[in-house]
Design a protein that fits this description.
about 400 residues, 4-stranded mixed β-sheet, 11 helices, about 45% helix, about 15% strand, globular, binds flavin-adenine dinucleotide
């Protein structure tokens, strides 16, 4: 594997840096504590997404016919790295961009592609992912929200939970049971649900970080046109797997850039902050911790390149995506823990670096649960990468 960028990729990076210099918005004052529950912050993100879209930098790895650039996955990784390095605002509608869009491209009808793809790229439509239920998380195929056929529609009743961004979403990628007789993986259908449809109630849940960005969602006789079935009726399990693999695969490069900035910023603090009259970095324990975080981050970067190489060759993320999900979520928790240990009690203050260390520490706890728990990722790796038998 050649880990150097090709001249074409270098040119791409330079062009992007030039565009970022011209177009980056003024820093948003609340960035560290910016929350999707704040309308001002949301407006800031929406404007930025429109600028990115107008510049032709949204969904660049999507085929040109669907509004992308047909760029390579390496170019997409470069874009995510450069955005993070330039401190660009995060992209709004990350579920639409990383998970729903690629799934509609893979199995959607022409009508669905025409209706949804460009609005995902521009941030005009925000999506949420209505998969988990109170009794169906890791064992997602046990879901019981029902969609019953009635003429040209499906009528949905049931409940979802932990639905990130449902409180601001225009659309939901919904999994519902359409066949009570079939075995549990066979009777599920994936539907595209307009969140303005009557009968939907969204109740925000408060996270330990203090924000309310995920929700319970209740459905009472919610009508969805049959034309909004994504893929085939009763074949939604395969569609869900496509969506989940895209979710796991698309996160890597952006996260690498984010962790790189965190490690670099910790290193700077360790050099400049003093405790007992000496820089923090003079303490051998601090140096050990920082070196360890740097090395582990390099491992993550190289594994990302491996996953991208496979994606470039096959067009489909493989079970290696589970290695990445497991790795980044547990890495981030170690990193946040070490940051608190190195920086000391002041890192818990909202006035220190805009409260970002305390926020990151609390938010990281959910990393090993969201997008599939660590135990489930290890099961996937055991079975699908190592070829071990199923557990009982
Ligand atoms: C921050 C955050 C955001 C989220 N956003 C969304 C969203 O937008 N949309 C959505 O649909 N869901 C979302 N989720 C839900 C998430 O996907 C589920 O929480 C996750 O899949 C786990 O399901 P569960 O909570 O029901 O736990 P359970 O599946 O009940 O698991 C409980 C414990 O048992 C373990 N366990 C379960 N099965 C096995 C097994 N076979 N072998 C070994 N151990 C096992 C798990 O690892 C876990 O430790 C989000 C969750 C979080 C934390």
């Amino acid at each position: 594997m050649d880990l150097n960028l090709t001249p074409h990729e270098e040119k791409f990076r330079i062009e992007l840096r030039g565009w970022l210099r011209e177009n980056l918005p003024e820093p948003w004052p609340e960035v560290a504590g910016g929350s999707e529950t704040d309308p001002g912050y949301l407006e800031h993100l929406r404007k930025w997404q429109q600028t990115v879209f107008a510049g032709g930098w949204s969904g660049i790895a999507w085929p040109k016919e669907y509004g992308g650039r047909g760029a390579s996955y390496i170019e997409q990784a470069i874009l995510q790295e450069e955005m993070a390095a330039a401190d660009a605002p995060p992209q709004i509608g990350v579920i639409g961009l990383s998970l729903v869009g690629p799934t509609i491209i893979a199995v959607g009808t022409n009508e669905q592609k025409k209706r949804h793809l460009s609005k995902i790229l521009s941030g005009e439509d925000i999506w949420c992912q209505g998969f988990s239920e109170p009794n169906a998380g890791s064992d997602l195929a046990s879901l019981s929200t029902a969609a019953e056929r009635d003429g040209d529609s499906f009528v949905v009743n049931g409940q979802k939970v932990w639905t990130s961004f449902a409180h601001i979403a225009d659309w939901c990628l919904l999994l519902a049971r359409t066949n009570q007789e079939a075995t549990k993986h066979k009777g599920i259908t994936c539907l595209l649900l307009d969140m303005k449809t009557p009968g939907i109630e969204v109740r925000p849940l408060r996270m330990m970080s203090g924000e309310s960005v995920f929700n319970e969602v209740f459905f009472t006789d919610v009508r969805i046109p049959a034309a909004n079935v994504l893929g085939d009726v009763d074949q939604g399990w395969g569609v869900a797997l496509t969506a989940l693999m895209n979710e796991r695969a698309n996160l890597g490069a952006g996260l690498y850039a984010m962790f790189r900035r965190t490690v670099d910023s910790l290193v700077e603090h360790a050099k400049n902050m003093r405790r007992g009259g000496r820089p923090l970095a003079a303490d051998s324990c601090v140096r050990q911790k920082l070196a360890r975080m740097h090395v582990e981050l390099e491992v993550f970067r190289l594994n990302n390149l491996r996953a991208l190489t496979r994606l470039s060759k096959t067009g489909m993320p493989g079970p290696e995506a589970s290695i990445q999900k497991l790795y980044w979520s547990e890495y981030n928790q170690r990193l946040c823990q070490m940051a608190m240990e190195i920086l000391g009690p002041q890192a818990q203050l909202s006035g220190f670096d805009g409260g970002r260390w305390a926020y990151n520490y609390l938010r990281a706890r959910g990393n090993t649960i969201e997008a599939g728990t660590s135990e489930v990722q290890r099961n996937v790796i055991a079975q699908r990468v190592l070829g071990l038998p199923r557990s009982y």
